[in-house]
Predict the structure of DNA ligase.
Amino acid sequence: MNKEETKKQIEKLREEIRHHDRRYYADDNPEISDAQYDKLMRRLQGLEAQYPCFVTPDSPTQRVGGKPLEKFGEVRHRTTMLSLANAFSAEELTAFDARVKKILETEKDIEYITELKFDGLAISLTYEKGVFRVGSTRGDGVTGEDVTNNLRTVRAIPLKLQGKGLPAVMDVRGEVVMFESDFEKLNKEREEAGEPAFANPRNAAAGSVRQLDPAVTARRKLTFFAYGIGFCEGIDFSSQHEALQFLKDTGFRVNPNTARCRNIGEALEFCRRWEKKRESLAYEIDGIVIKVDSIEQQRALGEVSKSPRWAIAFKYPAEQETTKIKDIIVQVGRTGALTPVAIMEPVEVGGVVVERATLHNEDEIRKKDVRVGDTVVIQRAGEVIPEVVKVIKEKRTGKERPFEMPGKCPVCGSDAFRPEGEAVARCTGIACPAQIKERIKHFASRNAMNIDGIGDAHIDEWVDNGLIKDPADLFFLKKEDLLKFERMGEKLASNILEAIRRSKAAVLPRLIYAMGIRHVGEHIAEVLASRYNLEGLKNAAEEELQNIREIGPQIAESIKIFFRQKETDEFLKKLEKAKLNIEHVRPASDKLQGKQFVLTGALSGFSRDEAAALIKQAGGRVTSSVSKNTDYVVAGTDPGSKLDKAKKLGVAVISEQEFIKLVKK
Ligand code: IVH
C-alpha cells in the first residue's frame, strides 16, 4: 500500500470503528463481537504507527493518552449551565404549570417533554465542526474544570459526530453516569485493595471524571447520556424533542425513556409511573425533569436565579432513613479483611427492611465519629448493603460508646495487621475458619463456579465440622457425608452433588475468578484466561504479567503471592484430581458472530449463565428482552412472555437441543 492508499484505508477503518462504537455504546446494539472489534482497532493502530503523520485527535485510537495533570485548567461556559428548581408533589407541579401559562399569557395546554433525571455528573462538551474539542464540569455554572482528556476515555462520548451540515460550534450538555453493576464491582475491587469505597454511583462517576490521571478514568466504566444543547452556531432547533433526535442522529447516547406530553397531567403520570419502574433501571435516577418542549416558549420564559423557568425537577424521596445503632461487629472477608458492620434497629429503606450497614473501615468510623447507641442516617445505594451516611449528633445522650477496632481477629484470634498506607486491617491467620468459609462461598457463588443450591449455612456447617477445608474439597463430597447434617434430605443432597458435578464444566475465566486471588475480579480473570491455561498462569513471571495492558504491579504481585503459597499447591492438586473439564468448553470461535439471543424458561443441560457464556464465546450476544433485532429466542421449559413476543415479531424460536447444535456445530 502506498501512502495515499494507507491514508484512505485509515479513514475507512476509523469510520467503521466509529460505526461500531455507536452501535455498542450509544445504541446498546452491537453488530460484531469484541474480538472482531479488537481486530479492527489493532489494524488501525498498526497503520497509524506506520504513519504517525496521519494520526488525528478524533481517531478512535486517541481515547487514552493524555498525561496526568497537576491540576485542571478552567473553562468558561459559553452559556451558563443552569440548575433546576425542584417539585416534590403534584400540587407543586400544577403550580409550575400555572406559572408557565401565566408568563406566556395563555390558557392553552402546554406541551412538555419528560426525561429521566440521571444521578451523575453534569458536563458540557464542545464540538467544532463535529470534532470533540473541550469537555468540562459544571463548576459554578459559569466556569468549570477542563476534564477533556478524561472525557475522551468515555466511549459513549463520540470524538467525531456523524452526519452532514454539522454546526460550526456546539455545546452538548448531559450527564456522566456509572451503572450500578459497575459501581458495585469497582467498590468491591477498592475494598479488596484497601481503598475507601465510593458512597454511591454518583460519587464514583464524579470522582472518576475529576481524576488527574486520565489512565485511571479510562479504567472506570462510565457512560454518558446527552440531554440538551447549550450554545449552538448554525442550527436553530424548534423543540427539545427535535434537539434530542439530532443528538441521537449525530451519535450520542440519548436515553429512550422520554415522553412528549400534551399537558402537565400526562407529565405527572409519567413521574408516577417511573417512581415504581426506576428500580428496574441499571442506573440511578433521582427524579424526572419536565421541560417545556417548544424552544420559542423556553426563550419567552427565560430564567431566574440560575434556574430556567421552563423546566422543573420532580424529585423522588431519597432512599435514606434514620435508625439507631445497637452494636458494631467485625466481619472477616475471604482475604482476611476486617470490616466493621453496624447492627441497627430494623428500618425500611426504599422498600426493603435493613438491619445491617457497612461502616467500611476504622478511618471511616473515625471520620464520621460513629458510636454504638448513635442515631444515624443510612442509605441504600444500588443493591449493595446499606451504609451509614452520618450521625445525628443532636440526638446524643452521652451514653454512646466509641468503637475500638480489635487488635485480633474476632473469629480465629490471630493478630490483625494493617499495612502502612492501607485503610483495611486483615486477619493474619492462615487457617482462619471465617476466611475459609468466605473463600468457599465465593468459589461457589453465581459469577464464579455457580454451584446452585448450596447455601451459606451449609458451607458454615461443613467447615465447622471439618468436612471441607478449601473450595476444591467440594468436588469430593459424598452423599453420605451430606446426609449426616440436619435439614439435609436425599433430594437436596442429590441436587447439590449434581450442581457440583455440573460446575466442573465451567469456563476458565470463572475458575480463575473463583480462586479468589486478591485484586483479580471477573474482568482480570477473563484477561488472564485469554492468555494462559492454569499451569501457564501459575508459572508466568511477574514481569510478563505486568506487560499485559490491564495488569499493574499490584495485581501481578498478588497473583505470584497466591501461587507461591503451600495451600494453593494443595488446592491445585485437588482440582487436578477432581478432573475438571474446563478446557473443553473454551476455544473461542466466531460462528455466532453478531447474533443476538434471548434466553427464556429453564434449560436442563446448563444454567442461564453457562448458556450465555457459550453464546459469548462463539461471538454472539445475549440480551434480556426480545426485539426485532433478536436472531434467536432459546425456549426452555416454562418459557415466559418473551416467547409470545418472539412469535409476535416473527423471531426464530429454538429448543435447547437446537441451541446445542448451533453452538457446538
Ligand atoms: S436539564 C437548564 N435534563 O440535574 C436545565 N438536567 O439541577 C438543566 N440532570 O446537575 C439541565 N438529568 O446535570 C437536565 N434529563 C436531564 C437531567 C438533568 C439529570 C441534572 C443536571 C444538573 C441537575 C439540574
